[in-house]
Design a protein that fits this description.
Blueprint (H helix, E strand, L loop, with lengths): L14 H22 L1 H16 L4 E5 L2 H14 L11 E3 L4 H10 L7 H7 L5 E5 L6 H13 L2 E7 L11 E5 L4 H22 L4
Parallel strand pairs: 1-2, 1-3, 3-4, 4-5
Length: 204
């Protein structure tokens, strides 16, 4: 069996200490989030459940890692989460490369999601913008467009929340300023949302 040979350039780096510190920070942020955010999570579950029952849809959008979260969560609603059941109407506004590049090229990157909200959003839909900083111009523009069309606006963020608080009917603000910790909790709460809705709709 071959052995891996490591030649660290920084001999002062202690992997165990790094590992333990990451674990401690993750666990603390998770605990703080669960303590603080039940009212907001409950409101999010209720709003999405009512929307889906009324034949409306969930629209997820974000940049970078948050774009991946948007796609991940929309897929779990449409396909399955806990068990096989009927499809639930959800869409990630991050996946159509022709549309994304056309908007970026012709209108500007800040219009990336607002343009899709204008085209696809309807009163009673849920617009879910994911931004760890709360300052992403295209997320803010999309939530403004959603408000104008009568969508329920939801923000997933962290730190101070940036400019999201004034644009969101429901705001889940992770109590951390570390991007990776915020993203970890966004996907956790997003998956909990899907599981809770499956229960509330009697699908499992």
């Amino acid at each position: 069996m071959s052995q891996l040979n490591f030649n660290p350039t920084d001999s002062s780096f202690n992997l165990r200490s790094f590992y333990d510190a990451e674990k401690a920070e993750h666990c603390q942020v998770a605990e703080d989030s669960f303590v603080e955010l039940f009212p907001e999570f409950s409101a999010w579950v209720e709003a999405c459940t009512q929307a889906l029952q009324a034949g409306r849809k969930l629209l997820f959008f974000g940049n970078g890692g948050s774009a991946a979260d948007a796609q991940h969560l929309a897929t779990e609603f449409v396909v399955r989460f806990k068990t096989n059941r009927r499809a639930l109407a959800a869409l990630a506004l991050t996946t159509d490369t022709s549309l994304l590049t056309a908007v970026g090229n012709d209108l500007g990157f800040e219009h990336l999601f607002a343009r899709q909200i204008e085209a696809l959003g309807a009163k009673g839909d849920i617009a879910i913008g994911i931004s760890t900083s709360g300052k992403s111009p295209n997320i803010l523009a999309a939530l403004k467009a959603a408000r104008e069309k009568g969508l329920v606006t939801v923000g997933l963020t962290g730190g101070t929340g940036g400019e999201l608080p004034s644009l969101c009917d429901i705001l889940l603000k992770i109590p951390s300023s570390t991007t990776s910790r915020i993203q970890e909790m966004h996907i956790t709460f997003g998956q909990m949302l899907c599981g809770a809705i499956e229960h509330k709709l009697g699908l499992i």
